[in-house]
Design a protein that fits this description.
The chain contains 1 helix and 8 strands. By secondary structure, the chain is of the alpha+beta class. The protein has one domain. The strands form 2 sheets. Strands 2-3-6-5-8-7 form a 6-stranded antiparallel β-sheet, with no helix packed on it. β7 and β8 form a beta hairpin. It comes from Panagrolaimus sp. JU765. This is Protein quiver.
Length: 137
């Protein structure tokens, strides 16, 4: 699952999207097809200011995270960001909540939502296979 994009506040890298300027530490999610080398789903949340959150979600590789390989779940990690600007350096410290899992649609927010998104995802895959069969012939 990945965040649904919104104009002006979404950045996408491969099958991982980041939403900024959110009022809550969550985003509306939609299914995403991961590439073969992407073996994990990740959701990362971070409070960047009062009532302002950053949420990233989507496909990634398990080796990119410092959570034990035999464990699924969430961990809180301290981060430090530095921006070098003319005349001074800006530092920002924040806690990121990182959740990792390895099943299909495993990073969805709720069971009910997971069922609805799974249905939509299966319809999308079925439609994609039909389109491929029509255009291949």
């Amino acid at each position: 699952m990945t965040c649904v994009p919104s104009a002006g506040d979404t950045t996408q890298l491969d099958q991982f999207r980041v939403r900024q300027k959110l009022m809550e530490p969550r985003c509306e999610m939609e299914p995403v097809l991961c590439r073969a080398e992407q073996d994990a789903c990740a959701t990362i949340t971070m409070q960047v200011a009062l009532n302002r959150f950053w949420v990233g979600a989507g496909c990634d590789q398990r080796v990119n995270y410092d959570i034990p390989a035999d464990r699924h779940g969430c961990a809180e990690m301290a981060t430090l960001t530095r921006n070098w600007l003319p005349g001074y350096i800006e530092e920002r410290r924040a806690i990121q909540k990182i959740c990792i899992c390895t099943g299909d649609l495993c990073n969805t927010a709720s069971t009910k939502l997971a069922f609805l998104n799974l249905s939509n995802f299966l319809i999308l895959i079925f439609a994609q296979k039909i389109i491929q069969q029509v255009f291949v012939r």
